[in-house]
Write a structure and sequence with these properties.
400 residues; mainly alpha
Protein backbone atom coordinates (compact mmCIF):
# COMPACT_ATOMS: atom_id res chain seq x y z
CA UNK A 1 0.00 0.00 0.00
CA UNK A 2 2.87 2.36 0.79
CA UNK A 3 4.45 1.71 -2.63
CA UNK A 4 1.08 2.37 -4.28
CA UNK A 5 0.73 5.63 -2.34
CA UNK A 6 4.21 6.75 -3.36
CA UNK A 7 3.58 5.95 -7.01
CA UNK A 8 0.19 7.67 -6.95
CA UNK A 9 1.67 10.81 -5.38
CA UNK A 10 4.44 10.94 -7.98
CA UNK A 11 1.92 10.54 -10.82
CA UNK A 12 -0.42 13.12 -9.27
CA UNK A 13 2.18 15.85 -9.01
CA UNK A 14 3.67 14.90 -12.40
CA UNK A 15 0.30 15.48 -14.05
CA UNK A 16 0.09 18.82 -12.24
CA UNK A 17 3.53 19.75 -13.53
CA UNK A 18 2.52 18.85 -17.08
CA UNK A 19 -0.65 20.96 -16.82
CA UNK A 20 1.28 23.98 -15.56
CA UNK A 21 3.96 23.41 -18.22
CA UNK A 22 1.16 23.65 -20.78
CA UNK A 23 0.23 27.03 -19.29
CA UNK A 24 3.47 28.40 -20.73
CA UNK A 25 2.00 27.82 -24.18
CA UNK A 26 -0.86 29.96 -22.91
CA UNK A 27 1.53 32.72 -21.91
CA UNK A 28 3.12 32.52 -25.37
CA UNK A 29 -0.12 32.74 -27.34
CA UNK A 30 -1.60 35.40 -25.08
CA UNK A 31 1.43 37.59 -25.78
CA UNK A 32 1.55 36.62 -29.46
CA UNK A 33 -2.07 37.67 -29.93
CA UNK A 34 -1.66 40.94 -28.03
CA UNK A 35 1.55 42.34 -29.55
CA UNK A 36 1.76 43.75 -33.06
CA UNK A 37 2.52 41.37 -35.92
CA UNK A 38 6.17 42.42 -36.15
CA UNK A 39 6.80 41.08 -32.62
CA UNK A 40 4.99 37.73 -32.72
CA UNK A 41 8.02 35.49 -33.26
CA UNK A 42 9.82 37.20 -30.38
CA UNK A 43 6.89 36.47 -28.07
CA UNK A 44 7.06 32.75 -28.86
CA UNK A 45 10.84 32.47 -28.59
CA UNK A 46 11.03 34.42 -25.32
CA UNK A 47 8.64 32.15 -23.44
CA UNK A 48 10.41 28.94 -24.49
CA UNK A 49 13.93 30.23 -23.86
CA UNK A 50 12.91 31.87 -20.56
CA UNK A 51 11.52 28.51 -19.44
CA UNK A 52 14.76 26.77 -20.37
CA UNK A 53 16.92 29.29 -18.51
CA UNK A 54 14.53 29.07 -15.55
CA UNK A 55 14.92 25.29 -15.45
CA UNK A 56 18.71 25.45 -15.23
CA UNK A 57 18.69 28.29 -12.68
CA UNK A 58 16.09 26.61 -10.46
CA UNK A 59 17.76 23.20 -10.66
CA UNK A 60 21.26 24.46 -9.86
CA UNK A 61 20.41 27.22 -7.36
CA UNK A 62 16.78 28.25 -6.85
CA UNK A 63 15.28 25.02 -5.49
CA UNK A 64 18.11 24.78 -2.97
CA UNK A 65 17.55 28.41 -1.89
CA UNK A 66 13.85 27.74 -1.32
CA UNK A 67 13.92 24.24 0.16
CA UNK A 68 17.53 23.42 1.02
CA UNK A 69 17.51 20.43 -1.34
CA UNK A 70 20.51 19.75 -3.56
CA UNK A 71 20.46 17.49 -6.61
CA UNK A 72 24.23 16.98 -6.57
CA UNK A 73 23.92 13.37 -5.41
CA UNK A 74 23.87 10.05 -7.26
CA UNK A 75 20.98 9.13 -9.55
CA UNK A 76 20.25 6.11 -7.33
CA UNK A 77 19.48 8.42 -4.42
CA UNK A 78 17.43 10.75 -6.60
CA UNK A 79 15.27 7.86 -7.83
CA UNK A 80 14.20 6.79 -4.33
CA UNK A 81 10.49 6.80 -3.54
CA UNK A 82 9.67 6.77 -7.26
CA UNK A 83 11.62 10.00 -7.72
CA UNK A 84 8.91 12.03 -5.96
CA UNK A 85 11.36 14.77 -4.96
CA UNK A 86 12.41 15.17 -8.59
CA UNK A 87 8.82 15.35 -9.79
CA UNK A 88 8.05 17.87 -7.04
CA UNK A 89 10.95 19.94 -8.35
CA UNK A 90 9.42 19.80 -11.84
CA UNK A 91 6.04 20.93 -10.51
CA UNK A 92 7.47 23.83 -8.50
CA UNK A 93 9.77 24.79 -11.38
CA UNK A 94 6.74 25.45 -13.57
CA UNK A 95 5.56 27.93 -10.91
CA UNK A 96 8.98 29.62 -10.76
CA UNK A 97 9.20 29.87 -14.55
CA UNK A 98 5.85 31.68 -14.60
CA UNK A 99 7.59 34.76 -13.15
CA UNK A 100 9.66 35.61 -16.28
CA UNK A 101 6.69 34.62 -18.45
CA UNK A 102 4.62 37.21 -16.59
CA UNK A 103 7.31 39.88 -16.95
CA UNK A 104 7.68 39.09 -20.66
CA UNK A 105 4.18 40.38 -21.36
CA UNK A 106 4.81 43.71 -19.70
CA UNK A 107 8.07 44.52 -21.49
CA UNK A 108 7.03 43.21 -24.90
CA UNK A 109 7.87 44.89 -28.20
CA UNK A 110 10.86 46.96 -27.07
CA UNK A 111 13.02 44.88 -24.69
CA UNK A 112 16.40 43.46 -25.67
CA UNK A 113 16.68 39.68 -25.63
CA UNK A 114 19.86 38.85 -23.69
CA UNK A 115 19.48 41.27 -20.75
CA UNK A 116 16.08 39.75 -20.03
CA UNK A 117 17.57 36.24 -20.02
CA UNK A 118 20.10 37.40 -17.42
CA UNK A 119 17.23 38.86 -15.40
CA UNK A 120 15.39 35.53 -15.70
CA UNK A 121 18.35 33.63 -14.27
CA UNK A 122 18.68 36.01 -11.30
CA UNK A 123 14.94 36.05 -10.61
CA UNK A 124 14.43 32.28 -10.74
CA UNK A 125 17.75 31.48 -9.12
CA UNK A 126 17.51 33.86 -6.19
CA UNK A 127 14.82 36.57 -5.99
CA UNK A 128 11.73 34.36 -6.33
CA UNK A 129 12.95 31.30 -4.34
CA UNK A 130 14.00 33.47 -1.41
CA UNK A 131 10.40 34.60 -0.90
CA UNK A 132 9.06 31.17 -1.86
CA UNK A 133 11.14 29.61 0.91
CA UNK A 134 9.84 32.14 3.43
CA UNK A 135 6.19 31.39 2.69
CA UNK A 136 6.24 27.70 1.80
CA UNK A 137 9.24 26.39 3.74
CA UNK A 138 9.35 28.43 6.97
CA UNK A 139 12.42 30.35 5.82
CA UNK A 140 14.09 32.75 8.27
CA UNK A 141 11.36 32.15 10.88
CA UNK A 142 9.17 34.82 9.30
CA UNK A 143 6.04 32.66 9.19
CA UNK A 144 6.53 31.91 12.90
CA UNK A 145 6.80 35.65 13.58
CA UNK A 146 3.64 36.38 11.58
CA UNK A 147 1.79 33.68 13.54
CA UNK A 148 3.03 35.04 16.86
CA UNK A 149 1.92 38.53 15.81
CA UNK A 150 -1.48 37.78 14.25
CA UNK A 151 -2.42 34.32 15.50
CA UNK A 152 -2.09 32.63 12.08
CA UNK A 153 0.57 32.14 9.42
CA UNK A 154 0.35 33.73 6.00
CA UNK A 155 -1.82 31.40 3.90
CA UNK A 156 -1.09 31.18 0.18
CA UNK A 157 -2.24 27.79 -1.05
CA UNK A 158 -1.31 28.12 -4.73
CA UNK A 159 0.59 31.35 -5.10
CA UNK A 160 -1.58 34.48 -5.42
CA UNK A 161 1.19 36.29 -3.55
CA UNK A 162 4.25 34.05 -3.98
CA UNK A 163 3.92 33.69 -7.76
CA UNK A 164 1.51 36.27 -9.17
CA UNK A 165 1.93 39.31 -6.94
CA UNK A 166 5.69 38.88 -6.91
CA UNK A 167 5.76 38.44 -10.69
CA UNK A 168 3.52 41.43 -11.34
CA UNK A 169 5.37 43.74 -8.98
CA UNK A 170 8.73 42.63 -10.41
CA UNK A 171 7.40 43.52 -13.86
CA UNK A 172 6.42 47.08 -12.86
CA UNK A 173 9.99 48.38 -12.40
CA UNK A 174 11.03 46.73 -15.67
CA UNK A 175 8.17 48.44 -17.51
CA UNK A 176 8.91 51.82 -15.93
CA UNK A 177 12.67 51.65 -16.56
CA UNK A 178 12.14 50.58 -20.18
CA UNK A 179 9.72 53.39 -20.94
CA UNK A 180 6.75 53.35 -23.29
CA UNK A 181 6.85 51.91 -26.78
CA UNK A 182 7.85 54.37 -29.48
CA UNK A 183 5.05 56.77 -30.45
CA UNK A 184 2.69 55.28 -27.86
CA UNK A 185 2.23 58.60 -26.06
CA UNK A 186 2.78 61.52 -28.42
CA UNK A 187 4.00 64.95 -27.35
CA UNK A 188 0.73 66.53 -28.50
CA UNK A 189 -1.11 64.42 -25.92
CA UNK A 190 -2.56 61.95 -28.37
CA UNK A 191 -2.36 58.29 -27.29
CA UNK A 192 -1.50 56.14 -30.28
CA UNK A 193 -3.47 52.90 -30.34
CA UNK A 194 -1.43 49.69 -30.60
CA UNK A 195 -4.28 47.17 -31.01
CA UNK A 196 -3.82 43.40 -30.60
CA UNK A 197 -2.63 41.68 -33.75
CA UNK A 198 -4.65 38.50 -33.41
CA UNK A 199 -7.71 38.10 -31.18
CA UNK A 200 -8.10 34.34 -31.87
CA UNK A 201 -4.52 33.68 -30.68
CA UNK A 202 -5.11 35.92 -27.65
CA UNK A 203 -8.24 33.90 -26.84
CA UNK A 204 -6.38 30.61 -27.39
CA UNK A 205 -3.71 31.72 -24.94
CA UNK A 206 -6.34 32.65 -22.36
CA UNK A 207 -8.08 29.27 -22.73
CA UNK A 208 -4.84 27.29 -22.42
CA UNK A 209 -3.98 29.22 -19.26
CA UNK A 210 -7.47 28.72 -17.85
CA UNK A 211 -7.44 24.95 -18.37
CA UNK A 212 -3.91 24.57 -17.03
CA UNK A 213 -4.82 26.61 -13.96
CA UNK A 214 -6.78 23.69 -12.56
CA UNK A 215 -3.48 21.84 -12.37
CA UNK A 216 -1.86 24.94 -10.91
CA UNK A 217 -4.45 25.12 -8.11
CA UNK A 218 -5.74 21.59 -7.50
CA UNK A 219 -2.35 19.89 -7.72
CA UNK A 220 -0.88 22.35 -5.22
CA UNK A 221 -2.09 19.77 -2.69
CA UNK A 222 1.08 17.90 -3.87
CA UNK A 223 -0.11 14.50 -2.59
CA UNK A 224 -3.16 12.61 -3.74
CA UNK A 225 -4.66 12.18 -0.24
CA UNK A 226 -4.92 15.99 0.09
CA UNK A 227 -6.74 16.58 -3.20
CA UNK A 228 -9.74 18.87 -2.73
CA UNK A 229 -12.83 19.24 -4.86
CA UNK A 230 -13.38 22.56 -3.06
CA UNK A 231 -10.25 23.93 -4.74
CA UNK A 232 -11.53 22.90 -8.16
CA UNK A 233 -14.99 24.42 -7.71
CA UNK A 234 -13.61 27.60 -6.17
CA UNK A 235 -11.24 27.99 -9.11
CA UNK A 236 -14.18 27.55 -11.47
CA UNK A 237 -16.32 30.12 -9.65
CA UNK A 238 -13.53 32.69 -9.50
CA UNK A 239 -12.86 32.21 -13.20
CA UNK A 240 -16.52 32.82 -14.00
CA UNK A 241 -16.74 35.81 -11.67
CA UNK A 242 -13.71 37.43 -13.30
CA UNK A 243 -15.10 36.83 -16.78
CA UNK A 244 -18.52 38.35 -16.08
CA UNK A 245 -17.09 41.38 -14.28
CA UNK A 246 -14.65 42.04 -17.13
CA UNK A 247 -17.48 41.64 -19.64
CA UNK A 248 -19.64 44.20 -17.84
CA UNK A 249 -16.98 46.79 -17.03
CA UNK A 250 -15.00 46.23 -20.23
CA UNK A 251 -18.03 46.86 -22.40
CA UNK A 252 -17.69 43.55 -24.24
CA UNK A 253 -14.09 44.23 -25.28
CA UNK A 254 -12.61 40.81 -26.21
CA UNK A 255 -9.25 41.64 -24.64
CA UNK A 256 -10.89 42.34 -21.31
CA UNK A 257 -13.25 39.37 -21.60
CA UNK A 258 -10.40 36.92 -22.12
CA UNK A 259 -8.24 38.40 -19.37
CA UNK A 260 -11.17 38.39 -16.92
CA UNK A 261 -10.98 34.66 -16.14
CA UNK A 262 -7.22 34.97 -15.63
CA UNK A 263 -7.73 37.80 -13.14
CA UNK A 264 -10.21 35.69 -11.20
CA UNK A 265 -7.91 32.67 -11.18
CA UNK A 266 -4.92 34.76 -10.05
CA UNK A 267 -6.93 36.06 -7.11
CA UNK A 268 -8.37 32.73 -5.94
CA UNK A 269 -5.04 30.89 -5.77
CA UNK A 270 -4.29 31.91 -2.19
CA UNK A 271 -7.58 30.91 -0.60
CA UNK A 272 -8.98 28.34 -3.01
CA UNK A 273 -8.72 25.63 -0.34
CA UNK A 274 -10.57 27.68 2.30
CA UNK A 275 -13.31 29.76 0.67
CA UNK A 276 -16.95 28.99 0.09
CA UNK A 277 -17.69 28.93 -3.67
CA UNK A 278 -19.75 32.11 -3.35
CA UNK A 279 -16.78 33.80 -1.71
CA UNK A 280 -14.63 32.63 -4.62
CA UNK A 281 -17.18 34.05 -7.07
CA UNK A 282 -16.99 37.46 -5.39
CA UNK A 283 -13.19 37.26 -5.22
CA UNK A 284 -13.03 36.61 -8.95
CA UNK A 285 -15.54 39.36 -9.77
CA UNK A 286 -13.57 41.92 -7.78
CA UNK A 287 -10.37 40.80 -9.51
CA UNK A 288 -11.95 41.14 -12.96
CA UNK A 289 -13.07 44.64 -12.02
CA UNK A 290 -9.62 45.54 -10.70
CA UNK A 291 -8.05 44.45 -13.96
CA UNK A 292 -10.34 46.45 -16.24
CA UNK A 293 -10.18 49.64 -14.17
CA UNK A 294 -6.45 49.62 -13.46
CA UNK A 295 -5.44 48.52 -16.96
CA UNK A 296 -7.38 51.47 -18.35
CA UNK A 297 -5.76 53.83 -15.84
CA UNK A 298 -2.22 52.60 -16.46
CA UNK A 299 -2.56 52.85 -20.24
CA UNK A 300 -4.56 56.05 -20.58
CA UNK A 301 -4.04 58.15 -17.44
CA UNK A 302 -0.73 57.14 -15.87
CA UNK A 303 0.91 56.37 -19.23
CA UNK A 304 2.61 53.20 -18.00
CA UNK A 305 2.97 51.12 -21.15
CA UNK A 306 2.46 47.65 -19.66
CA UNK A 307 1.63 45.85 -22.90
CA UNK A 308 -0.35 42.87 -21.55
CA UNK A 309 -1.36 44.58 -18.31
CA UNK A 310 0.67 42.18 -16.19
CA UNK A 311 0.95 44.56 -13.24
CA UNK A 312 -2.85 44.94 -12.94
CA UNK A 313 -3.51 41.28 -13.78
CA UNK A 314 -0.87 39.58 -11.66
CA UNK A 315 0.47 42.27 -9.34
CA UNK A 316 -2.77 43.89 -8.19
CA UNK A 317 -5.09 40.90 -8.56
CA UNK A 318 -2.50 38.71 -6.83
CA UNK A 319 -2.29 41.15 -3.92
CA UNK A 320 -6.10 41.27 -3.78
CA UNK A 321 -6.14 37.46 -3.70
CA UNK A 322 -3.84 37.45 -0.68
CA UNK A 323 -6.19 39.82 1.15
CA UNK A 324 -9.34 38.06 -0.09
CA UNK A 325 -8.08 34.83 1.48
CA UNK A 326 -8.10 36.63 4.83
CA UNK A 327 -11.68 37.77 4.25
CA UNK A 328 -13.57 34.95 2.56
CA UNK A 329 -11.52 32.26 4.27
CA UNK A 330 -13.02 33.26 7.62
CA UNK A 331 -15.73 31.03 9.08
CA UNK A 332 -17.97 34.07 9.53
CA UNK A 333 -18.10 34.38 5.72
CA UNK A 334 -18.54 30.68 4.98
CA UNK A 335 -14.87 29.72 4.82
CA UNK A 336 -13.02 26.98 6.66
CA UNK A 337 -11.17 29.37 8.99
CA UNK A 338 -7.62 29.08 10.21
CA UNK A 339 -6.65 32.33 8.53
CA UNK A 340 -6.12 35.90 9.73
CA UNK A 341 -6.60 39.08 7.73
CA UNK A 342 -3.68 40.62 9.59
CA UNK A 343 -1.37 37.80 8.53
CA UNK A 344 -2.54 38.11 4.92
CA UNK A 345 -1.99 41.86 4.95
CA UNK A 346 1.54 41.57 6.38
CA UNK A 347 2.50 38.77 3.99
CA UNK A 348 1.08 40.53 0.95
CA UNK A 349 2.90 43.77 1.76
CA UNK A 350 6.12 41.82 2.28
CA UNK A 351 5.81 40.19 -1.14
CA UNK A 352 5.05 43.50 -2.86
CA UNK A 353 7.92 45.32 -1.12
CA UNK A 354 10.44 42.56 -1.88
CA UNK A 355 9.44 42.40 -5.55
CA UNK A 356 9.56 46.19 -6.00
CA UNK A 357 12.95 46.51 -4.30
CA UNK A 358 14.47 43.56 -6.15
CA UNK A 359 12.94 44.64 -9.47
CA UNK A 360 14.29 48.18 -9.37
CA UNK A 361 17.73 46.95 -8.28
CA UNK A 362 17.98 44.19 -10.89
CA UNK A 363 16.62 46.08 -13.87
CA UNK A 364 18.34 49.30 -12.78
CA UNK A 365 21.72 47.55 -12.80
CA UNK A 366 21.02 45.86 -16.15
CA UNK A 367 19.94 49.18 -17.66
CA UNK A 368 23.11 50.90 -16.46
CA UNK A 369 25.48 48.10 -17.50
CA UNK A 370 23.95 46.63 -20.67
CA UNK A 371 20.88 48.60 -21.58
CA UNK A 372 17.40 47.13 -21.62
CA UNK A 373 15.87 48.53 -24.76
CA UNK A 374 16.10 47.98 -28.49
CA UNK A 375 17.35 50.92 -30.54
CA UNK A 376 14.74 53.13 -32.20
CA UNK A 377 15.51 51.53 -35.56
CA UNK A 378 15.25 47.98 -34.15
CA UNK A 379 11.97 48.76 -32.43
CA UNK A 380 10.55 50.29 -35.61
CA UNK A 381 11.57 47.24 -37.62
CA UNK A 382 10.17 44.93 -34.95
CA UNK A 383 11.75 42.42 -32.59
CA UNK A 384 11.13 39.55 -35.02
CA UNK A 385 13.44 40.86 -37.72
CA UNK A 386 15.79 42.75 -35.39
CA UNK A 387 16.48 39.83 -33.04
CA UNK A 388 15.45 36.64 -34.84
CA UNK A 389 15.91 37.66 -38.49
CA UNK A 390 12.56 36.24 -39.57
CA UNK A 391 8.93 37.33 -39.41
CA UNK A 392 5.87 35.35 -38.38
CA UNK A 393 4.81 35.04 -42.04
CA UNK A 394 8.09 35.04 -44.02
CA UNK A 395 6.53 33.81 -47.25
CA UNK A 396 4.75 37.13 -47.61
CA UNK A 397 8.04 39.01 -47.62
CA UNK A 398 9.80 36.61 -49.98
CA UNK A 399 10.65 37.87 -53.45
CA UNK A 400 10.68 35.40 -56.29
Amino acid sequence: MEALKQGSDALFILLGGIMVLAMHAGFAFLELGTVRKKNQVNALVKILVDFSVSTVAYFLVGYSVAYGTSFFVGAEQLAQKNGYDLVKFFFLLTFAAAIPAIISGGIAERARFWPQLIATAVIVGFIYPLFEGIVWNQGFGIQAWIKATTGEELHDFAGSIVVHAVGGWLALPAVILLGARSNRYRKDGVISAHPPSNIPFLALGAWILTVGWFGFNVMSAQTIDKISGLVAVNSLMAMVGGTLAALALGKNDPGFVHNGPLAGLVAVCAGSDLMHPLGALVTGAVAGSIFVVTFTLTQNKWKIDDVLGVWPLHGLCGAWGGLACGIFGLKALGGLGGVSFGAQLIGTLMGVAWALLAGFMLYGILKAVMGLRLSAEEEFEGADLSIHKISATPEREASW
